[in-house]
Amino acid sequence: MAIEMTGSVNSYAARDITGSRQLVSKRQRMSEYARELAKLAPSVEVRIGDSFPKTRTGKTLTIHPGLLNKMQHDPEQEQATKEMIQGVEFLTKWLDGLYKATGRTLVFRHSYIDADGKYRACSYVRNDKSLEMSKKMRVQRQKNSQKLIAKTREKAKKNKTVGGNVDYRC
Residues 34, 68: contact at Cβ < 8 Å? Predict the structure, then answer.
């Protein structure tokens, strides 16, 4: 008794290959679309993903893949998101100028647009002026404490030679 399964196996294999091709084609279209959107914000690295990146450096904008799909089918969503991306570009440049003017350094800034088109951002900024001021103040405090220690030692020697009673007040 022979059972012929080649027709159904070939059919499944053909569907699997077709599905893989469609998936690859969809990914290529999405990446091309993302490259076009990246031109709207050249000062940030545009990525496709579902959360903020884990890196602690650079300036990024991550767009949820579900939103990209919506944008390709809804012109209103596409226009709103493109305006938001341009706003991210403007905000990034404006904040860079503000940080530079106030002596701060941007360590990283990550922006994220979720599947519903909502914008979120997080950043880390270092205040270089306060770091420099801290160094100067630390040096000054060290000098002051060395002077105080020297003064206390002199007073202790003086009290020891005079009467033997030591007064530890400064």
Answer: yes
What Å distances lie between residue 39 and 43, 123, 138, CA to CA? 9, 22, 47
The sign of the CA dihedral 91, 133, 107, 54 is negative
| C-alpha torsion angle, residues 110, 113, 115, 117 (rounded to 10) | 160
List strands edge to edge, sheet with 119-127.
45-48, 58-63, 104-113, 119-127
151/158 Cα distance (integer angstroms): 11
- CA pair distance 151, 161, nearest whole angstrom: 16
Which three-class secondary structure state does DSSP give residue 46? strand
Provide the strand spans (E) within the chain: 45-48, 58-63, 104-113, 119-127
Q: What is the pLDDT of residues 85-108, one digit of tens each?
A: 999 999 999 999 999 888 888 999
Instruction: For residue 27, give Cα distances in angstroms to 22, 41, 52, 97, 136.
Output: 9, 21, 20, 36, 55
- Rounded to a whole number, what is the distance in angstroms from the first to the last CA of the chain? 109
Q: Is 71 exposed, middle or buried (0-12, 13-18, 19+ CB in 10 A)?
A: buried
Q: pTM of the predicted model, to two decimals?
A: 0.64
